[in-house]
């Protein structure tokens, strides 16, 4: 939860200019903190901690930040000149996300007032460069944000970075529950779970489907009645087959009990292991995603975890974030679109309309026709994200997209669907995506930005690839080649 986290504002200075200057710096730092908190542009609380003047003060505040689970990152700024050798010992031990905010207290240079006293007090332009050098020298993963602190766009950039940093904290505590293994023979959904835990913190473990079936058997009719009320309030019931919908409620209640008992915020399952279950969870998985749980089909625990993380990063936003799969294309010259869907499990947070509960047969999986939510995704800019295991390292691929109202009603398609234009264009985008090795499974988000995912990848120390409106196949292939060399040397 965003409200559980805070960020620490650490201001750099030194003793050279006397105690009065330091008092002024501290007063201004507190004023800036108060105004930033009051702006409504920061999703988490900013706490002014210290005007740091010595190696010990910096080392102490870093030690405290590392230790405090509430602290999701530090934001530094050098009000005056803060010699950076005294930051080395602290920075070398920093384990929390770090943003360097290059700003200054005054917006304008005052014509009459400016003299050498003013220059000594207001020299962030100078101090922030010395400060930036040492982070560069230490090869620290960092975010640099420059701009005037009272400008809304600058405040929003800090707020956006805060969400990425909360994604780091969330990731480091994330537990993923796997029901069944990965789909047989599929490569891209596999991965090194030990490496994922070392790099990203994820605890990915398996629980027997038989335990889920036992838990389902223990669900009471009263519990199902209560969840059915929720379904009917949030969705349109478009079937007479109530028993089938109730079975999904039973599945959801049982899965939620198991997830919550273990503290898991993400799960995966596979249609190849539904032993003892009558239906593949459809509506059940969709409604769990709507509550913030991550999901991945066919045992894809990586996309499940990414869904949960991106939902945590975008908490409180309304565009939506969903597990997605590229299914099929419209390749008409004037209307090139991707159609995304899944067998059942697209999160209703991206719906343009009130989703309908429907029951239809499922072509694969050898089970009874499952209930699922059917809807169209809404219009708007977004991204699709895929995390793949390259063997020895993880690669995060992000593509910019523009979602549209589906150009066809597709009345016989019995699943939720989202349609989008991919950048730079459909086929170049597909060539880039395939060149990079991106999966068919993605997380589609209207809320999380590519910049936030880049920040997250940098903080997690994993490779980042971004396909934008300006990407060419040639440039991307060159980048992938160089990345491969660089990551072998790292
Ligand atoms: Mn799939």
Summarize the structure.
The protein has 490 residues and is of the alpha/beta class. The chain has helices at residues 19-38, 55-67, 85-92, 116-121, 124-137, 152-172, 193-200, 209-217, 221-234, 242-262, 283-290, 301-313, 426-436, 450-460, 473-489, and strands spanning 6-12, 45-52, 71-78, 98-102, 143-146, 175-179, 203-207, 236-237, 266-268, 294-296, 321-332, 335-341, 356-359, 371-374, 380-389, 394-404, 418-422, 441-445, 463-467. The protein folds into 2 domains: 2-172, Rossmann fold (3-Layer(aba) Sandwich), CATH 3.40.50; 175-489, no CATH class.
Any overview of this molecule?
The chain is elongated, with a radius of gyration of 25 Å. The protein has 490 residues and is of the alpha/beta class. Strands 11-12-17-16-15-18 form a 6-stranded antiparallel barrel. It has a 5-stranded parallel beta sheet with strand order 2-1-3-4-5, with helices on both faces. It has helices spanning 19-38, 55-67, 85-92, 116-121, 124-137, 152-172, 193-200, 209-217, 221-234, 242-262, 283-290, 301-313, 426-436, 450-460, 473-489, and strands at 6-12, 45-52, 71-78, 98-102, 143-146, 175-179, 203-207, 236-237, 266-268, 294-296, 321-332, 335-341, 356-359, 371-374, 380-389, 394-404, 418-422, 441-445, 463-467. The protein folds into 2 domains: 2-172, 3-Layer(aba) Sandwich (Rossmann fold); 175-489, no CATH class. The mean pLDDT is 97. It binds manganese (II) ion. Residues 297-298, 325, 342, 441 line the site of manganese (II) ion.
């Amino acid at each position: 939860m965003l409200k559980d986290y805070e960020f620490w504002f650490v201001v750099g200075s030194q003793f050279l200019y006397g105690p009065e200057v330091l008092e002024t710096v501290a007063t201004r730092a507190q004023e800036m903190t108060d105004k930033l908190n009051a702006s409504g542009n920061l999703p988490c609380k900013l706490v002014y901690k210290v005007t740091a003047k010595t190696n010990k003060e910096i080392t102490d505040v870093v030690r405290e930040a590392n230790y405090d689970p509430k602290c999701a990152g530090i934001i530094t700024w050098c009000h005056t000149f803060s010699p950076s050798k005294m930051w080395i010992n602290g920075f070398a031990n920093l384990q929390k996300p770090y943003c360097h905010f290059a700003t200054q207290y005054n917006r304008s240079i005052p014509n009459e007032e400016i003299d050498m006293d003013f220059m000594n007090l207001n020299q962030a332009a100078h101090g922030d460069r010395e400060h930036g050098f040492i982070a560069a020298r230490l090869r620290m993963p960092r975010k640099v944000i420059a701009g005037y602190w009272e400008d809304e766009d600058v405040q929003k950039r800090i707020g956006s970075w805060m969400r990425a940093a909360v994604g780091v904290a969330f990731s480091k505590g994330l537990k993923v529950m796997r029901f069944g293994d990965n789909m047989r023979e599929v490569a891209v959904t596999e991965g090194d779970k030990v490496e994922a835990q070392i790099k990203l913190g994820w605890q990915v473990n398996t629980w027997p489907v038989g335990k889920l079936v036992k838990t389902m058997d223990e669900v009471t009719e009263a519990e199902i009645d209560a969840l059915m009320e929720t379904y009917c309030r949030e969705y349109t019931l478009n079937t007479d087959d109530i028993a089938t919908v109730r079975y999904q409620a039973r599945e959801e209640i049982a899965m939620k009990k198991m997830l919550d008992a273990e503290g898991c915020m993400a799960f995966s399952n596979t249609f190849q292991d539904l032993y003892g279950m009558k239906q593949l969870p459809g509506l059940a998985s969709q409604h769990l995603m709507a509550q913030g749980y991550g999901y991945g089909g066919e045992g894809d625990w990586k996309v499940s975890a990414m869904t949960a993380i991106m939902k945590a990063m975008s908490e409180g936003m309304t565009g939506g974030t969903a597990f997605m799969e590229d299914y099929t294309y419209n390749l008409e010259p004037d209307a090139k679109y991707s159609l995304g869907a899944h067998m059942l499990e697209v999160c209703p947070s991206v719906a343009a309309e009130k989703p309908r509960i429907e029951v239809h047969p499922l072509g694969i999986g050898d089970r009874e026709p499952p209930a699922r939510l059917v809807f169209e995704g809404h219009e708007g800019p977004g991204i699709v994200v895929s995390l793949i295991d390259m063997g020895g390292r993880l690669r995060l691929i992000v593509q910019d997209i523009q979602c549209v109202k589906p150009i066809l009603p597709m009345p016989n398609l019995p699943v939720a669907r989202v349609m989008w234009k991919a950048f730079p264009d459909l086929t170049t985008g597909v060539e880039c995506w395939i060149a990079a090795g991106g999966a068919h499974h993605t997380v589609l988000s209207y809320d999380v930005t590519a910049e936030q995912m880049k920040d997250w990848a940098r903080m997690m120390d994993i490779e980042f690839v971004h396909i934008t409106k300006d990407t060419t196949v040639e440039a991307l292939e060159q980048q992938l080649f160089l990345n491969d060399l660089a990551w072998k040397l790292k």
